[in-house]
Amino acid sequence: MKNDQDRGLAAEDILAVCALRKRLFPSDIFDEHAWSMLLILFVGYVKNEIISEQALMTRAEVSTASGSRWIAHLVEEGQIEPRQTNDVVALSNDALTNLRTFLDESRNIVGGEK
């Protein structure tokens, strides 16, 4: 993969596949809220979107209570930049690097570059 635009498209593809899976197999066993949040934030980063905590939880289809816990966990793990509650949520530099690597390598697994 050559750039963040291509990686953003790959992240959107992953989110679309997760939505399809959720539609066909409506079960809590497939919940991946933290992973969805990271992908949503990456797509937002690529599109220069400012994503609030509430908007992130809405897009990830997670309750406020659960979403707040996941966001706090992602901050603790260094995936999201520390911020004030209800503030803008942003990926850490480490998370950006790791997502770029993941998206590049996963694209190669599922059929090569577009």
Question: Could you walk me through the main structural features you see in this protein, from its secondary elements to its overall organization?
Answer:
The protein is mainly α and 114 residues long. 63% of the residues lie in helices and 0% in strands. α1 (4-24) packs antiparallel against α2 (33-46), α1 (4-24) crosses α5 and α3 (53-59) packs across α4. This is MarR family transcriptional regulator. It comes from Sphingomonas albertensis.
Question: Largest sheet at a glance?
Answer: none
Order of helices and strands: HHHHH
CATH fold naming: Arc Repressor Mutant, subunit A
Measured distance between first and last alpha carbons: 8 Å
Structural class: mainly alpha
Helix content: 55-70%
How large is the count of helical segments? 5
DSSP strand content: under 5%
Uncertain runs with pLDDT below 50, 5 residues or more? none
Number of structural units classed as domains: 1
Mean pLDDT: 87
Classified by CATH, the class is Mainly Alpha
CATH superfamily: Winged helix-like DNA-binding domain superfamily/Winged helix DNA-binding domain
C-alpha-based Rg, rounded: 14 Å
Q: At CATH's second level, what is the architecture?
A: Orthogonal Bundle
Count every beta strand, where a strand is a DSSP E run of 2 or more residues. 0
Protein name: MarR family transcriptional regulator
